[in-house]
Write a structure and sequence with these properties.
Rossmann fold, 5 helices, 9 strands, about 230 residues, about 30% helix
Length: about 230
């Protein structure tokens, strides 16, 4: 895949098994690319092929778990009958453009394995990553940005006509809720903003409500797609 900057291109050269960190559900795999290796964890039901997939990316420190006490792994496991998930760890989370390429590799992997309807989820720094990555693939059908930063999200309007869900805690002192409110203003319809009173950046205070929201939003938007 190639972004608008012709110097920023990346291709998958191979996929090999990789030992995921202890305690992680799913299967580890290493995506070998022209810009280096990307660690990933896949969740899927091998006996039930599906065309639906999710790419999950985290914040500026990278990793796999996501906010709200490991919500990424939990939801990926709960949804794997009918939806394939790939949790992607950035090669260098200090660099937005490189991290966008990592997300695009996740999209490319899913597309190359028969997934035609893909949803992106990112938290904090990852919110800007998925907002930036979405327009580069027509297979991306929806985007969720949790506690997102504004840097890198200025072109949120380009996510449309894909639905965009923005979620933020009203007590977030690292990235205030005004960040998601600003992105909401930049974005075009369809778009939705959910603010959780009392929740901080990691959304721990609303983790149960967030799990329910995301599970419903993801399944509803996949179900609404044309067959």
């Amino acid at each position: 895949m190639t972004t608008e900057d012709n110097d920023l291109s990346i291709q998958i050269q191979g996929v090999v098994p990789w030992q995921a960190p202890e305690g992680q559900a799913g299967q580890g795999m290493l995506l070998k690319t022209t810009r280096g290796d990307i660690e990933a964890i896949i969740h899927h039901d091998q006996e039930m092929p599906t065309t639906k997939g999710i790419v999950w990316v985290w914040g500026a420190r990278g990793g796999f778990d996501g906010p709200a006490d490991g919500i990424y792994g939990d939801l990926a496991e709960n949804l794997k009958t009918g939806i394939t998930s790939i949790r992607v760890n950035y090669r260098d989370p200090r660099l937005l453009q490189e991290s966008v390429l990592d997300a695009l590799v996740g999209i490319s992997f899913l597309a190359g394995t028969g997934h035609t309807d893909i949803l992106l989820v990112g938290h904090s720094f990852g919110g800007a990553v998925v907002i930036t990555a979405a327009p580069f693939s027509d297979k991306v059908k929806a985007v969720i940005a949790l506690s997102s930063q504004t840097f890198g999200a200025r072109e949120a309007g380009n996510v449309s006509p894909r639905p965009l869900l923005l979620v933020h805690g009203q007590n977030d002192t690292r990235l205030p809720p005004s960040c998601s409110e600003q992105i909401f203003e930049w974005a075009e319809e369809p778009k939705e903003l959910v603010l959780y009173p009392g929740a901080e950046h990691g959304l721990m205070e609303c983790k149960d409500e967030l799990r329910a929201l995301l599970a419903d939003w993801i399944t509803n938007h996949f179900d609404a797609l044309p067959a």
